[in-house]
Design brief:
Strand order of the largest sheet: 6-7-8-3-9
Largest sheet: 5 strands, parallel
Order of helices and strands: EEEHEEHEHHHEHEE
Distance between the termini: 33 Å
Strand content: 25-35%
CATH architecture of the largest domain: 3-Layer(aba) Sandwich
CATH topology of the largest domain: Rossmann fold
Number of domains: 2
Shape: globular
Number of helices: 6
């Protein structure tokens, strides 16, 4: 199981622009870290670099398991979820078909998908096409994958933004359970996370 992430001397460049350099950050089991900073500072890019979707200009992203270092490819394939600013859902599928597809693809089961839908108040929406859902409803479908195929590290880009107050509180409770079980959260935010967390300003 993934127990820690160690980011050392990280620099990221997009196009001709250096987003930031020299970033050191360690996240251990049970930790939540909120990334803050102005738009364009590199918060989303940092999430993508941890997920292996963006190559650093300098520095390393390392993963530690219970028995020592993990191969980055193994850790990324088996131990993390990324929920981006765009939900990444196919608009013509029903909410259930999309959730089930993503759950099975990431190692969960039909039963775990059903349970996740219930926890995120999606049961009555599962027969609707994604394109008929509100922004908050689509986000809850995307977030359900976190519960349906559990992984240690949640990489979240503005996870609360489209949610109403009640569903923010509900997801905050689910996030707290994840952390209490030894999970980790690294989130790019403008609004505060609903759990105790360390705040790291990018580009500050």
């Amino acid at each position: 199981m993934l127990r820690a992430i160690r980011i050392k001397d990280l620099s990221l460049v997009r196009g001709e622009r250096r987003l930031f350099s020299g970033l050191d950050l360690e996240i251990s089991a049970g930790d939540a870290v909120a990334l803050t900073g102005r738009n364009g500072a590199g918060k989303t890019s940092l999430l993508r670099a941890v997920a292996g979707l963006l190559r650093p200009a300098q520095g390393t992203v390392g993963f530690e398991g219970e028995a020592g270092p993990l191969e980055a490819e193994v850790a990324r394939a088996d131990a993390l979820h990324l929920v981006g600013h765009h939900d990444g859902l196919k608009s013509t599928r029903s909410a259930w078909d999309e959730l089930l597809f993503q759950t099975l693809w990431t190692g969960g089961t039909e039963a775990s998908a059903r349970a996740a839908a219930t926890k995120l108040d999606l049961d009555r929406l599962l027969g609707l096409e994604i394109r008929r859902l509100s922004a908050g409803q689509r986000r809850r479908v995307a977030l359900a994958r976190l519960l349906a195929s559990p992984r240690a590290l949640w990489l979240l880009d503005e996870p609360m933004a489209p949610l109403d107050a009640g569903h923010r509180e509900g997801f905050g409770g689910l996030m707290a359970q994840h952390l209490a079980g030894g999970g980790m959260v690294l989130a790019a935010v403008h609004d505060p996370l609903p759990v105790p967390c360390r705040v790291v300003e990018i580009g500050g």
